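Service request form, structural biology core

Requester: graduate student, group of Dr. S.
Request type: structure prediction, single chain
Budget code: on file
Notes: please return the result as structure tokens.

Sequence provided:
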Amino acid sequence: MTPNESYYERVTDSRKPQGIRRPMIRFFLDHGENVSYTARVFRTSRPTVTKWVKRYKAHGWKGLWDLPQCPHHCPHKTSQDHRELIANLRTNHGRRPKTRIGQEEIQLLLEQRYGIKMSSSTTNRVLHELKLTRPRRKKYQKKRHMALYRKHLRPLAHRQVDVKYLNDIPQIYALVLRRILPKFEYTMKDVLTGTTLICHALQLMTFNSAKAIAPCLDHFRSHGLDLSQITIQTDNGSEFIGSITAKRDSLFTRVVENFHGRIEDEFYDLERPNLNLKKTPFQAVQQRTQINDPHFMAFPPPLLGPHPPLRSTAPICRRCLRPGHVHE
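Core staff response, request fulfilled:
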């Protein structure tokens, strides 16, 4: 400690204040345990010297460390009984450790069953303290998991089906609005190779959804694929499952159940490489299957019915958006 620095200045700037208190205690012991003299030399107060001398005599050199600043008691802390209730509700008293309910449902059950009002943030904090939460997977972990999942897939066996709305594309909005182009596009994509078959429709209904599956399956059968090994997945929209209050399965569901079903929304054509596979979808099909006929990828998109007839295909005027109209 320099002559121009006080004890407080040195302790404030130091990361290890216990190293500064050691010389003060040694000076105190070497000079007859004189509190006033030690306080003057180290430019501090008598109570400060007395405090650290008592700490030293009670605990030795370890007593010169700063004590934790956290409070010894928190009046608003969640009680142990409430913490146990939250843990039991989370795991159903340990009977379902994997299927766990969320913090909002726990909050509701606490109030309904036990009359305990607790915020969802408090419930969430207790779940984290008890380590009853599942950490979110990082992006690289999801990619690694998907890579392992794809390795165990059979080519052309797992397909995802979705509907694309074409009226949200600015370039063709006018054509769709005047019913020159269809409004909906059904896509059936293979998860492993990325090969995609498409169908068009003017109306969104289970009849068209079922009709979209039939020509695709016929196309697969004509190239020697075993339809019993194909699974199809949808997003369970009303165009696939019909009304949720229906007493029987929809037409689409009954058609797909014959082939045990799965599918995804994305379209890659024959020439566009799949970024994950580093090759075109047809190259992936050739590598993983016995199909070498390029006509396998040439599936003509059918227009599904029933539907009103399409209007004229004459060029649209850019000024009034009417087909075949020419301004003088």
